[in-house]
């Protein structure tokens, strides 16, 4: 394996992170405020995605419930993609398109926040989830890339769009993970004070 190929991954990662620094800081800060406000009012965070984005949704929920870098009480967060029995049952009985919207219909309440994570912004099941969240008067935070895809067209004015300036899935997912860490750190700072 040529070392240059490996170095190119690092260079590209650094370039996308530098560009994201300028474009994403304000929407991430706004998302932290929305998440903290929801948690302060007794609402919950629901997160979902597909593939690697499902793993990132689970990372967000796990970190909110289990803690980030400092000890604190767990925060109410659910990764809707973490229950294989639920996903396969809904897919089998309805359609894969409904795997998240059906859970949101059962669990979501006004004031809750839905975090959807998608590298392409075109996942049909995430679009259905956003629609269901809007019907339940939930806030939506969308982490996307690749220009935002169709998700960017269905977001409401009150929703927050964090769109990574890249078309490559690995680079988008890397910035999504950093964004998740920023969200968790920001919530902790608001709860526990700056450290």
How would you describe the overall organization of this protein?
The chain is of the alpha/beta class. It has one domain (3-192): 3-Layer(aba) Sandwich (Rossmann fold). Helices cover 56% and strands 12% of the residues. The protein is built from seven helices and five strands, in the order αβαβααβαβαβα. It has a five-stranded parallel β-sheet with strand order 2-1-3-4-5, with helices on both faces. It starts with a helix and ends with a helix. 40% of the residues are buried.
Q: How is the secondary structure organized here?
A:
Elements lengths: L2 H38 L4 E5 L2 H15 L10 E3 L4 H10 L7 H7 L5 E5 L6 H12 L3 E6 L6 H4 L5 E4 L5 H24 L3
Parallel strand pairs: 1-2, 1-3, 3-4, 4-5
Helix pairs in contact: 1-7, 2-7, 4-5
Name some characteristics of this structure:
Rossmann fold, alpha/beta, about 200 residues, five-stranded parallel beta sheet, 7 helices
CATH architecture annotation = 3-Layer(aba) Sandwich
The proportion of residues forming helix, as a percent range, comes to: 55-70%
Mean pLDDT score, rounded? 96
* Oligomeric assembly: single chain
State the CATH topology: Rossmann fold
Uncertain runs are none
CATH class: Alpha Beta
Tell me briefly what this model is.
The chain is of the alpha/beta class and 195 residues long. The longest helix is centred in the N-terminal third of the chain and has 38 residues.
